[in-house]
Design goal:
The protein is α+β, with helices and mostly antiparallel strands and about 350 residues long. α2 packs across α3. Strands 1, 2, 3, 4, 5 and 6 form a six-stranded mixed β-sheet that branches. β1 and β2 form a beta hairpin. The chain has two domains: about 220 residues, Hypothetical protein, domain 2 (Endonuclease III, domain 1, Orthogonal Bundle); about 110 residues, Nucleoside Triphosphate Pyrophosphohydrolase. The structure holds a DNA duplex (11 and 11 nucleotides).
Length: about 350
DNA sequence: AACACGGGGCG
DNA sequence: CGCCCAGTGTT
């Protein structure tokens, strides 16, 4: 089945996307493992478009692994704000320090990479292939879709993962590991798309069983997801002398370790719900922030108070810099904008 | 195996 | 508005 590899690599030579963490096919340039790793962590469960500005910011500010490893946690988390899945940022820091302490070079095998924080099966395979030209079976959501269609695997995900991986192993060539992995992703991203696949442009269309059977767009099948509940919550805007009170969220749970407005726990706690951070004449702020999380939707109200005197916990942040510099996750940025802009 | 974990973009 | 995306870690 070297046919798939040959065709896909030839297609990639002509149609590879130009991306900041990529070296062009056939250029002979070895990619920087630091940049490959950084891009792969950022790209977990998000899109190339979303990552672009963050990758540029991170590589400009921390051009090397050593620079990143030496940075304060809060600075890195703040730079990550808005990208989501904040455990990735904490693992990024932990991984950078692990590698830096170990001499500064990334492991160059899948097994070695797999030991690092934030590096799972997919990322270990991807880095081994792209940065170190190791043959590895790289299976992300793009590859799952391409392979499920190519072999017409009808079993729904996630149960079909082992079958899909075995099929992906069959078509993975023994050469140009990184190019093949990235070619599969480009194919899945631009041609073998979830809806309306561009089969007429696909270099594999005449090998594709699902295409022959007319079911390409219906694959891969997925087991139905549970409906997302809606939760209610309140955020508190406490103002004093041109400053607003910010807190740092706990190290575990939603938006862990991120700077935030005080809130009431969003109906998530058994006790203490609805408690403002201090007593006073709270004013209702017009509007609602609706924010989608992976497994629920949050509808958050905002209440505001002008405080006097000191407050024991939290930091007072200049209001005119809170939007640009506080590193608030999007939920709390929207809440702040409700107060500041209506 | 199931769940927790963000955010934005698409039809 | 529902679905999806270069997944990982925990239980």
């Amino acid at each position: 089945m070297g046919e798939v590899g040959d065709r896909l690599l030839a297609w990639y030579d002509r149609h590879a996307r130009t991306l900041p963490w990529r070296t062009p096919p056939g250029s002979g340039e070895a990619p920087d493992p630091y940049r490959v790793w950084l891009s792969e962590i950022m790209l977990q469960q998000t899109t190339v478009a979303a990552v672009g500005p963050y990758f540029a910011k991170f590589t400009e500010r921390w051009p090397t692994l050593q620079a990143l490893a030496a940075e304060d946690d809060a600075e890195v988390l703040s730079a990550w704000a808005g990208l989501g899945y904040y455990a990735r940022a904490r693992n990024l820091i932990a991984c950078a320090r692990t590698v830096a302490d170990g001499g500064g070079a990334f492991p160059d095998t899948e097994e070695g990479l797999r030991e690092l924080p934030g590096v799972g099966a997919y990322t270990a395979a991807a880095i081994a292939a792209i940065a170190f030209d190791r043959r590895a079976v790289v299976v992300d959501a793009n590859v799952e879709r391409v392979v499920a269609r190519l072999f017409a695997i009808r079993e729904p995900l996630p149960a079909a993962k082992p079958s899909i991986r075995a099929a992906a192993d069959e078509i993975t060539p023994d050469r140009r590991a990184g190019d093949f992995a990235q070619a599969m992703m480009d194919l899945g991203s631009g041609i073998c798309t979830v809806r309306d696949p561009k089969c007429l442009l696909c270099p594999l269309s005449d090998l594709c069983v699902a295409r022959a059977e007319g079911i390409a767009e219906n694959l891969p099948a997925k087991t139905p997801k549970k409906a997302k509940p809606v939760r209610q919550g309140t955020a508190f805007w406490v103002e004093r002398d041109g400053h607003v009170l910010l807190v740092t969220r706990p190290g575990k749970g939603m938006l862990a370790g991120m700077r935030a407005l005080p809130d009431d726990g969003w109906s998530a706690r058994a006790d203490g719900d609805g408690e403002p951070p201090l007593d006073g004449d709270w004013q209702h702020v017009e509007g609602t922030v609706r924010h989608g999380f992976t497994h629920f939707t949050l509808e958050m109200q905002v209440r505001r108070l002008t405080a006097q005197g000191s407050h024991p916990k939290g930091e007072w942040w200049p209001i005119d810099r809170v939007e640009a510099e506080a590193g608030l996750p999007t939920l709390f940025l929207r809440a702040a904008q409700l107060v500041l802009r209506g």
